[in-house]
Structure formats: C-alpha cells, structure tokens
Amino acid sequence: MRAYHEYKDSGFEWLGEIPAHWGVGKLGACFEGRNEKVSDKDYPALSVTKNGIVPQMEHVAKTDAGDNRKKVCINDFVINSRSDRKGASGTSNYDGSVSLISTVLKPREYNPDFVHHLFRSYNFQEEFYRYGKGIVADLWSTRYAEMKNISVPLIPKKEQLAIANYLDCETIRIDKLITEKQNFIKLLKEKRQALISHVVTKGLDSTVKMKDSGIEWIGEMPEHWSVPKLSYRYEVLLGKMLDDKKITGDYLGRYLRNTDVQWDNVNDERLPQMDFRPQEVERYKVVKGDLLVCEGGEVGRCAIWEKDETCFYQKALHRLRPYSKSKDFPRFMFYVLSNAVHQERFMSRANKATIAHLPADAFRQYRFGFPSFDEQKLIAEYLDKEKYKYDDLLNEVDESIVLLKEHRTALISAAVTGKIDVRNQA
Hints:
By secondary structure, the chain is of the alpha+beta class. 33% of the residues lie in helices and 21% in strands.
C-alpha cells in the first residue's frame, strides 16, 4: 500500500505521524456522551462484545439492573470501560440499552462506520486504557471524564467513508480466510480422530479375518483380539485425597493435579507439594511409563508420564499401570482412551448431575479390544507418526491464522491513523 504524499507530527504517540491535511482534536469535542438511563423493558438489552454490539442472547445471565441501564441509539459507539473486557466495543446497528459500565458516544464529526474501525483499532484501545484508573488490572477502567481528553484525528468525512469502505471489504475478506482455515483445522482433527478410531478397533491389517467384539461402539474387530475388562490388564488406582493439613511435613513430594494432565502432555512445572509418608510412596507415586487419566472434568483425558524422576498424583487422576510390561503397551492404551473419549463412552456412565466423574470401580469394568503386545506397539508407533504429521499441518494452519489476525490488526491501525492511503482502494 502506498503512503500519503506529505506527513506531519501529530504530537501524540498513538497517532504518530499523520497526513499533512489531517488535524487533531479532543474526543470530547467530536462526540457527545449519552447518559440517559432507561429500562430494558422499553429498550432491548444489547451485549458489548469483542465482535461488536449484538442483541443480548437468551442464555446470557441477566443483571438485576433492568431499570437502570444506559440508552443506545443506532450509530452510537459503545465501549466497555473495564480492562478485563478489553476490545469489547463497536458501532451499534440497534436501538437498545447496555450496562452502566459501558460508555456510549454519539458522533458529531465522524462517520459511524469509520468510528467502528478507529476506536476498535489496537492503537486506540491501548490509548483508551492508558487514560484509565484502578487498583489492579482486572478492575482498571476508563470513564468518559478521562476518555474525552484523548486526542483523535480530524479527517474529512469523505475520506473517513473511503477508509471505512476499504476496511469493511478487507476485514470481510480476511475474516473469510480465517473462517476457511478454522474449518480446515476442524476437518483435519476429524480425519485424525477417525484414523485413530479405525486403527485401535480394526488394526493395521485390512485383510485379517474379523469377528463381532460384542461391544456396540467397537463393532467388528480382528478375530485374534480379546476384549477383557480393563482391570484384567491394568492396575487402575486413584491418587491421594487432598488434605490442607498435610501440605507441610517431613515427606513433602510434588504431585500432579487434573489440570496438569492435558492431552498427550503432562505439566511438571511449579507443582504443589503434599506430605507423602514412606508407607504411601508406592501407592501414590508415578513412574516413567504410567498412564495418567483424568477422573473428572474432561473425563478420560490422558497422557503418559515420561520423566525419570518420581512424582505423585492426587485423587482427581487415575494411574494406569500394566500388570505385565511384556503384554501391554501404555502408548497403545493412550490411543484407545482417546478414541473412547471421542466416542463419549465415559460420559454415559459419568454422574452428569454435577461435574462428570469416572469412579475407579466403574472405570475398571470397561472392556476394550487388545491385540498382542507387538501389535499394540506397531499400532502406537504408526499412530505416533501419523499424529505428528497432522500436528505439524495443524500448527502451520494455526500460525497462518495468527498471521492473518496480526495483518488485520496492523491494516486497521495503519488505515485509521493515515500510514497508508486507501482513498482509491475501496
């Protein structure tokens, strides 16, 4: 994109150099703060989101301040004043009402579509919160009394419209690309999971004779596979119950929590400690090769402990350890459980009344298909290779989405502050 022919210093860091024919003024002189209090019975409730101003969804929790809200008219710009809602703002296409925590502005000298891009730009958002006050970041807010002192660019309305039209077209184009890439990621994940599901229930040899497994969600499986209960092949034990009285003691040891076990990854940084008596060590320790499975939360989420050093684990986790290391391969079991979670097999037995849980007694009763150790190892090695291929591709697509979002942000900031001339691009 080409730049303007001539620039001047705006005198303000967030604007930098601006086109020579632009001016600078105070926000308070260009907008009127709208502070009329109304009821959401007369003016429908609107939500101030990072995607702009939208009608409040039915499932969104309603406040008790239904008769104490702030009026919004079409073309008003609304911004949430709190830093923990950073980026939640936009020009409204609706008449309605918002929470009193939001600032509502009626444009005087600005095109509403241009304002939507200017005030949602990264540069302005940073300047907006720089004018705020508060004790900590989450309670930091910027009121209109401070906001009106922010310096803003004064641009001919015809030029504002050209910039707004250009950014509307470009952001729609970029957002479409991002959506396409996100859909591609979804497709890749589905294909990866379909491959895992097929291989851990049918094996790698398409010519092998099949038989009915007797388990509905597995269906047919290779004739030479068996379907024993999990408890026949693996020791399944829950970790130690947390006890605040035992966070100090003579036998402190680091322990893993549910949140430390994510899919195929175990966090071992800054783990909490608890007292594990000598007689408890064997019962609650985790050694290299143990499979850790979440008992609650995302039931069945699992990963293998790959460290040489010993660690412990709390009751929110199951520890799976094969009775025979020459008979069962934990990496294969990882993929089996991945398939079971994807098929929602644990949720059918979990207690859905509150938080889903999978008690050890119930977990031990599940039946899975087991080939020989050598075949388990071959399947796991094959799926590892395929998984890494998918992961590499997923990472590439993720990175391209990040770049597109960065480009979108930079493009908006450049256009609304005059770093690029888009008057003939719309």
